[in-house]
Amino acid sequence: MAERRAFAQKISRTVAAEVRKQIAGQYGGSPQLFKNLNAGTLTSNTVPLTEAVEPVDFEEYLITHPPIVESGPLRDLIEFPPDDIEVIYTPRECRTVVQAIPEEGDTDPHVRDCVRSYTEDWAIVNRKYHKLGTGFNPNSLDKQKERQKGLPKQVFEADELPDSSGYQDDQDDLKRRSMSIDDTPRGSWACSIFDLKNSLPDSLLPHLLDRAPNEEIDRHNEDQRKTNRHRELFALHPALDEEDPIERHCVPDVPKEHFGQRLLVKCLSLKFEIEIEPIFASLALYDVKEKKKISENFFFDLNSEQTKAMLRPHIQTAAISTLARSAIFSITYPSQDVFLVIKLEKVLQQGDIGECAEPYMVFKESDANKNKEKLEKLRSQSEQFCQRLGRYRMPFAWTAIHLMNIVNSAGSLERDTELEMSLSERKGSWSERRNSSIMGRRSLERTTSGDESCSLTGFRPATLTITNFFKQEGDRLSDEDLYKFLADMRRPSSVLRRLRPITAQLKLDISPAPENPHYCLTPDLLQVKPYPDSRVRPTRDILEFPARDVYVPNTTYRNLLYVNPQSLNFANRQGSARNITVKVQFMNGEDPNNAMQVIFGKSSCADFYKEAYTSVVYHNRSPDFHDEIKIKLPASLSDHHHILFTFYHVSCQQKQNTLLETPVGYTWIPMLQNGRLRTGHFCLPVSLEKPPQSYSVLSPDVPLPGMKWVDNHRGVFNVEVVAVSTIHTQDQYLDKFFALVHALDEHMFPVRIGDMRIMENNLETELKSSIAALNSSQLEPVVRFLHLLLDKLVLLVVRPPVIAGQIVNLGQSSFEVMAAIVNRLHKYLDTSQDMHGRNSLLSSYIHYVFRLPSTDPNSPSPGPGGLGGSVHYATMARSAVRPASLNLNRSRSLSNSNPDISGTPTSPDDEVRAIIGSKGLDRSNSWVHTMGCKSAPWGSSPGSAPETMQAMERCGNRMSSHTESASFLQTLTGRLPTKKLFHEELALQWVVSSGSVREGALQQAWFFFELMVKSIIHHLYFAERLESPRKNRFPERFMDDITALVSTIAGDIVSRFQKDLELVERLNTSLAFFLNDLLSVMDRGFVFTLIKAYWKQVSTKVYALQNPTLESLRLDFLRIVCSHEHYVTLNLPCSLLTPPASPSPSVSSATSQSSGFSTHVQDQKIANMFELSVPFREQHFMAGLVLSELSVILDPDNEGMFGLHKKVVSVVHNLLSSHDSDPRYADSEVKARVAMLYLPLIGIVMETLPQLHDFTESLNQWGRSGGVQGTTVCSNGDDAEAEGNNMINQTVAMAIAGTTTTSPMSRPSSFLLNSQANRQHGSFSAESSRSLLICLLWVLKNADELVLQKWFTDLSVSQLNRLLDLLYLCVSCFEYKAHVVFTMQGKKAFERMNSLTFKKSKDMKAKLEEAILGSIGARQEMVRRSRGQLERSPSGSAFGSQENLRWRKDMTHWRQNSERLDKSHRSHRTRAELEHEALIDGNLATEANLIILDTLEIIVQTVSVTESKESILGGVLKVLLHSMACNQSALYLQHCFATQRALVSKFPELLFEEETEQCADLCLRLLRSCSSSISTIRAHASASLYLLMRQNFEIGNNFARVKMQVTMSLSSLVGTSQNFNEEFLRRSLKTILTYAEEDLELRETTFPDQVQDLVFNLHMILSDTVKMKEHQEDPEMLIDLMYRYCTKLMNVQENQF
């Protein structure tokens, strides 16, 4: 037993014969031996752990084993709940009060489809219990806090804070804070006894002295132990530090309308020096860098009612939507280049802009009285102009605000700071003002450009006052000019500063927009919820024109057109045309009455108009325009819809016989060109006369005969038309595809697309080429119409169209283009991906949008096409009997794991066409020649399992394009033939795909897998087959396809993981999620065989290559598959393992003779439950895989897998912690069933014992587990080097005495694990070891005690001893580390500890000790460690770096590294957090130790009947004593002492005759507890000590052994322990006296007197030792006391001997 621990060698006194047997038996029942022994011992029917066994036929098993229980939680373990999966149709949340739909109804099929796509309910598949899978384990870091509420606080002596005087300095520390020792010399017994008698005893334990049968005591102890236990162990154990667990599949975000960062601008007031006329304002955002206007205009009107009245003749009643004074702007790409531009207009008047602006620059408000007459004159002029020219506007002034300056400065100033912006000379330059007032107190660092400083979300609202406007210049109105001005504004020497400003005051409020603003109108004038009252002045949502593409699918109907006239050149036009305005109308015919009322009004006017006029630049024949005309497009457009532009000359002067407006030209833009919307830049010729009849269908570029044009038909009018539409794709390829699909829907031929007329006979070619051409379309429109596009492609797969009487199968084309689109999205939109590489747009399409056509409960017609009566869709009813001749060979495409193999000469397309060409009559047209020749690679590819080959063969016998003629369809009496099922077609297409298509599908396998799963569930749900037996839910051919698919993908994983790891990781997780999903809907035994097929392929390769990467992939796969919410049910937890018919000689039965306890043949059933036997792995298939992986990876011989320890342990840890918190398994009986699935874990952990991290070592290596003031905490205090005082070091004393350090006084030495001999293999990190041990404790806590007891009976002595070693290690592992929440700064304490610990290390004392102990030894090693000279430990754990942190007691070993090392973090943690942490740690330590205690009790019950119990009981006692030596809670110690008392009373000879060393140890532990500051601990320890004396006395009428041990223990205790308090010990001595007085049974014997003598003696020694400590500085007194002490000690010992 080379790897037996040093401390354990004393446990088992086994005889040589037994050892020999045991070596031969190699640890009888241990599962791992399968690996080492499967050559010899085992017969052929075992399967090595490295391979998967044949899984149980799950469905069959359920039928043949009806449940025994009728109902209740156990019954629920047997089968999935009936409501496991549901398909829910949830209405999509509509942002607006009424849904956005076209007013004129759904005439056009494309519009109808779009609107359906934006309004239909979400179709969501809900796995009701999904959140109970391990991916959503509530024991994760974030959720654990909630589950730890209501924990009781455990009391630990180590936490009781001694008073702070200890911080003062060394000497104070040594003065004991004794209570009753005064300065009188205390030589006399009398004084001592007087002191003792005056002490108060602790309360006595009731019934302690009653004689009760052992069984009753055990039962009572067990009841006490089991009450108020914490039910969930993992709620107390810190969660593993993982990023998002790999098995978590988060629900994607609901598709919704896109908004950037939103900004609310409120326009408060606009005031000029003079008020003589109405002024109209607009706001818009511009991006200077992109040279783009990035929002539509917001028009507002701040005129007084009196001023507005001047326009009364021209304005109808104002609609409330046009009265808005606040607007919300959205900015997707905020940058330093965004400006808010404010433009002002006024009513047209005679004179250019300069003249009209002059009064505003000259007059001051203060001089109003002086200039009264002039102002009156101006006002009356304005009134005249308003009367006459009120419908026309002229440009007036503008200004701009650099948005980021506002946002940044507002961020630093107080709320609602007033910022003033001006450009006047008096107030310094514009840019200086900007720096001083806007920048506020912000430092200049913020002016760095770059988007990181451009967030609009968190700044404080600011009120701006803009005091200066620039006059508009008539010849500089274009956007180009504006961008130049804006760029110039940012320069310090702005040209604009030299201009004379128009002074005014515009007040704006700018703030981040609230989440749900009230009274808001969309750009389409719909009310946004909440909208409590329609009479309130609204806020307008302003449409964004994003600076760059935004990739978000459309979700609402919107159909807007923006017309921006830019410039006109009438320089070469004859005649008078100077004050030019353009009238814009949207026409649906050529008659003037056909103008549609669809043009949005601006401010203070009606909602919609039939025409709009551009503003006029006075006396300019070639004006620039800056108007934006917004039009609501009708949903369906015809060839007659067009925009008509009419040019007028406006007469500003009122002369006789002159018209107000004279038409001077006409032009137009037809809205549709070849069925597509026309948008973009146009440079149009202008006609001098009214266009002729039928002009609207032609473009004005066409030279119509007899028409006169300006400038010889040259383009003279520049205009831009922009559409923001969720109906028009504005992409030619998408348009063509949708048009063709709708032509099929409507069955209208010929179809006009572009300038082509497509007849029915060439429709198929066109359709296929248009599907293929979708790859050429722009990505942005593809994303915008993604939902509709994918829906249409699915529809083409499911219902192939009938064209010219032939069914056209488009499955392949659709599959190919889907793969291409999905890959494009993945490649270009890689920011929107989750950890599994799933693009969020696609996953939300699958989750919310995708449904099988015609499964929508609301649509009566089958499918979105509204198929009506005409049968123009058909399906490929795949014949049930597939003709053998149609061997469309697939093995060719399946060998794609070997990309070098070229395809067969004929492509599947050609093959399909050949069949179609033969009208489906000549079925014998076969492809046999493609069979066989290419199938060779299958033989060579790894894992070409025979079953896979068969599946391939079967698949090969099928042809998707099985054709049927139209005449045959018509015999179906107009009914639709049964349609294809999408998942079946998808699986087929995927399996037969090859080359780049297959590669594309592999790259995004997750998408097709998830589509397939949702399709399956929809199909089952609507066919009402979710209730039907799983075995007959799917046709065999589909199952074959799935088998082939899984097999080839596993092949890809295995063959490509070294070349393309990123792809393989994605593929691996996708496959795992797919199988996890299938477990919910398919035959579960079938899915198990798929898992096995994957396992087999990976195994073959793993063991060929010994590559941990592949093994790591398999662990990910396993973890995802096992995260299924019904994982426990899938493992058949209620099945009892039946041994094979003829029990094969298994390892355990072969060695059963060596079992120390059972002479009968082992109970095979029990052994099977605890071993990874074949029956276990078959029946509990998934648990078997998990535990086999654990066993194989932790196997010390498997060195290549060393790096995966943590990963494999976390798989198990995660499963158990998930079960632990699962409400379904709260019942203890159910938990026991769950624990049964993990019983082999006990054996696995026992096997790994030599490699586990040695937690006992960390206690010894410090010399002390440092208390706060250098006081040795009782944990390992007894062999602690008491460097802090001048008493003789215990270790040195022992060395002088010639004994080893393992004296009765010292704690058992470390496991000596690290001695090289025993550790050839890498050891586990502390974190992995701790995780493994908590899993072990969970199994021990929850397993059925009777089952455990039976198994323990079967274990050999050496195995039981190994289990005890393991429990010993658990005690150290979960020991509580004192949490003292420092009230002072931790630093002070740290310095103090340092000085205490290291102060004396260089003095003579240390050198002397080293000489005594020998130059090399644990002591030196320890001192070296404590000085931090050791490098990091070899296991790579972060423990080496802890050396100098020992003082930080709250830093328990398993805290995450970041927390452990980040000292600053430590100081930021609040007192409450530290207290919470201490609370949890205390409860964990208590619960862990109670589980160990429960297990020890089971072991004691098991072995008490056997003959070799002594060695085991010694081991039990050792673990008990070890647990007493550690920091324990009062609660645990009282149960521990109760168990110890029961053990001594059952086996008294054990202590007093055999384990004498342990007796000494026990006395020391009990005395230690007798001096505890916690009364319950003292009460139980005194009781135990008293009973120990009594039991010793009863054996031989005196208790000399206990007397001697107690006396020696006391002297060692008082001498070495620093924080020892004699007052507490005095109370305990008094308690023992009280027991002796009350013990009626022994009253007549010498026992009470002996007890009294002993107690008095102990008390004297106590007083003397305390005295010696006090007189340390007085050598003479000290020698005197020492002499007296020694004499007394000798007397005591002589008496006792």
Write a short abstract of this structure.
With 1697 residues, the chain is an alpha+beta fold. It contains 61 helices and 31 strands. Strands 3, 4, 5, 6, 7, 8, 9, 10, 11, 12, 13, 14 and 15 form a 13-stranded mixed β-sheet that branches. It has a four-stranded antiparallel β-sheet with strand order 21-16-27-26, with no helix packed on it.
Question: Could you please describe the fold and organization of this structure?
Answer:
The protein is α+β, with helices and mostly antiparallel strands. It is 42% helix and 10% strand. It has 61 helices and 31 strands. Strands 3, 4, 5, 6, 7, 8, 9, 10, 11, 12, 13, 14 and 15 form a 13-stranded mixed sheet that branches. Strands 21-16-27-26 form a 4-stranded antiparallel sheet, with no helix packed on it. The two termini are 39 Å apart. Mean pLDDT is 78; it is low at 1-44, 163-187, 423-452, 856-946, 951-978, 1138-1162, 1260-1321 and 1382-1466.
CA radius of gyration: 45 Å
- Classify the beta-strand content into a percent band: 5-15%
> What is the number of helical segments per DSSP (H or I, 4+ residues)?
61
Intertermini distance:
39 Å
Decide which structural class fits the backbone: alpha+beta
Low-pLDDT segments, ≥5 res:
1-44, 163-187, 423-452, 856-946, 951-978, 1138-1162, 1260-1321, 1382-1466
Average pLDDT value?
78
Shape: elongated
Major β-sheet profile = 13 strands, mixed
Features:
single chain; 1697 residues; alpha+beta; 13-stranded mixed beta sheet; four-stranded antiparallel beta sheet; 61 helices; 42% helix
